[in-house]
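User: My instructor asked us to take a sequence, write out its structure as tokens, and then describe one feature of it. I'm not sure where to start. Here is the sequence I was given:
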Amino acid sequence: MNFEQKNIWITGASSGIGEALAYSFARRGATLILSARNEKELTRVKMNCASPDKVYMFPLDISNHSDVFKTGNEILEKFGHIDILINNAGVSQRSKAAETKFQVDENIVNTNFLGTVAVTKSVLSEMLIRNSGHIVIISSVVGKIGSPLRSSYAASKHALHGFFDSLRVEIASKNIGVLIVCPGFVRTNISINALTAQGTKQDTMDQATKNGLSPDYVARKIIEGITANKEEIWIAGFKELLAINLKRFLPRLFSIMIGRTKVV
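Assistant: Let's start with the prediction itself. The structure tokens for your sequence are:
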């Protein structure tokens, strides 16, 4: 796929996978629209891109759904259309379900699931009119399995699969691709920013995250998935891929093993 002349909107673009995707698409000549809550970090990413003059910033907190639709309208007014939407923004969790405040559950779902749906709907009508577009959703391995300390995070990622699998079928005749990406542990700030039972940031890097895949590698695999028009890809290490398959084919064994596995 030739990404030159493509308008690509990336949420959660200030770090991690979103940042790596911004650099990769910039090297391929795309026009980038970058969104995240941290405007300072967003500026850093923009200036580190291959062609900063083709990078535009729209700071956004996707948990504020009214702001999402306002920003989507502003982007469409300025650029006319979005060719590829990368739904990458989200927040993780490090707390037991019984100890987690409901407001934390609500925050995670409002961000990861409803925020992603809102971003998508803010540009979907224009894609349907043009019969063209590509929607990418960064889910997780825990969008396929449940894991300790991730109850609401896993639920929000499971919800993405249900929604976007359904959407894909509904718009199958409209030449709009829908790719769900399931990364395993990736070396990003996700565990540092993960919410605890009280809603505060964990502020520490998990060992599993520290030893995870590089964001650049994950970005390359995502771009390969877009180019090949895949519906779903898993980008993970052996243990995470084993967990997905055990859950599918040997669910009882999976339940025993996941209870004994270190997930931080």
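For the description part of your assignment, you could build on this observation: The mean pLDDT is 97. Try explaining in your own words what that tells you about the chain.
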